[in-house]
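Something for you to look into today, if you have time. Could you write out one complete protein record for me, on any chain you like? Leave the record below and I will have a look.
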Amino acid sequence: MKNINIIEISNYLDNIKKYAYKDIAHIQNNVLNKNPYTSNFIQNCLQQKKLKKPNKLFLFRKIILFYIKNLAIFGSYTISYAIFKLIGIKSKINFNKDIYLIDTFFLVNKIIENNSFKDQYFTGIYEILTRSGKDFAFLPRVYGIEKNPFKLIQLLRILKNDNQSKYLFEYELLTLYDILKILFFIFKYPFKQFELLQKEVSDLDKNFNYELFCSLPNTSFEAYVRYLVGKKIAKRFAGNLFIVSWQEFQNLEKSFYRSIRESNNNIFIYGCEFLIKYENYLSMHITDVDVELNITPHQTLLNGKYNYSRSSKHNFKHGVSLRYKNIFRDFNYNDHDGSFLALLGYDVKESQNLLNTVNSIEDLTIKLHPTTIEDQFSLFNKSKSKSKSKWKYTYINLYNLFDKTSIVFAPTMTGTALEAVASGVSVIIIADKDKFAVNPLVNYGQSKIWDIVNDDKELIEKVNILMKYRKNNVEEITLISKWYRDNFFIEPNEKNIIKAFDLC
């Protein structure tokens, strides 16, 4: 295979999407989605791997695994559906009036732990919607009941105590006929993959055909459910509907947007990219082909003015950084030696690799990702190495930690690296040389405020370079930090929120 770059891979997949996405079933496909964490296609191509042609046993095994996983998830889903039909919340929505529908995640474990719901994704807009005289309701993306659907009972009990908010659950919208449609989708989906097989005239084609079935067991029917939900919403609302949708441009969002856009002209979707994007995270980027396929929102509101998406046809607009308001406070510049912070990610293996790589650091503060616990890293609590006796966990607010930190160590797939740089803290990304690196930072400021290492041999050298630069170039560090803040974040004040959502 000749050397190939990531843009060529993206274009290759777009050429297949042009005809594949005409069938809603293929929007679920993990290879076409370009997500480097749900399929190995991108990594295999960049590493020029020669993969064997799948044999019948390979195909049979992958199809059976798909059925086992999806039928188990479907069983859990039907229990959730039955629970909601028995004790669910009626929406209390007037479907004939104009309304804003907030399409956001409901993190069930967090809601149960706090015994209340507080949205973590669109903090700050609800008061402004109310002051602007806008009615709104939540369209929950329920997350955390896949393995235990009975948690839905606890969730519903908590939400019933909230008399102020309105909720429209997908279970209210779907009928038993829709449940049967989901089951039929599961049974036919593996065989739909044969429609996408490419004539193997290149190594790209061979890798695509292999990964098409290799990633099959990781595919679920979630995006198809969202398509059905979108269809129901389009029929249900008679007034003008504005959907404020959390957007990472994954399969479930693409399916939802398609169903709305092909069904109802009285609905306007704000796709809210209020998260940190990554240059090599191709599934987050909108292309012209996506626009032509009708799988985009009507408008995408950006977290900052720096936009990776390569589309001249899509409607992009500056949004607000609702989750990053602390970025805009004054930071305390810190150049003290030895003030090191490790920010672990949600991927336990990547975080363990990070801790192994920074083993030579004597004094280290470790902050866990919210989805992990100390027990997963007990190996690093009290270890053989004497130096690790000075390692400690912290639960202090991230931005308070930044004020006391000179260098942050972070795995590749964590947006907190960008937050750190925008707060004036130096960063070293710990990458795995055998994996495709997805890094939130761009070339600007590399070797000055941030750098990347693949092993412990490089680490100390990079630490010394960055520490020296911090001490001798305070003004330059400040300017680089400000550049990141200005390009990747937009202050979430009332004026900017009103402008983003056209509330004036």
Remarks:
- The longest strand covers residues 99-107.
- The domain at 86-174+223-318 is CATH 3.40.50 (Rossmann fold).
- Residues 381-387 have pLDDT under 50 and may be disordered.
- The longest helix spans residues 56-87.
